[in-house]
Amino acid sequence: MISSEPVLAAAEKVAEDIIEAYRRPSITFKEWQQLWGPADPWHEFTKACRAERKSMLGRLRFLDNRYCEDWFSRGSLCGFLR
Hints:
By secondary structure, this protein is mainly alpha-helical. The chain has 4 helices and no strands. It is elongated, with a radius of gyration of 21 Å.
């Protein structure tokens, strides 16, 4: 898996939570929310993934703009795709 360190660390916490959930007695969703509160590993994983996605999209847009500028100067239609 290729991801940033924050995504991998958050994914490991989610995996640990899944394993631990099998060891715990059954609980309701409300009990689960009270158990984790703001330290919910699933929420942290989601935040880490969103931050990585935003970073990756920013790099792609930068590369796309450079690609289009190069092709636009040669008469490409990239300028119409923005």
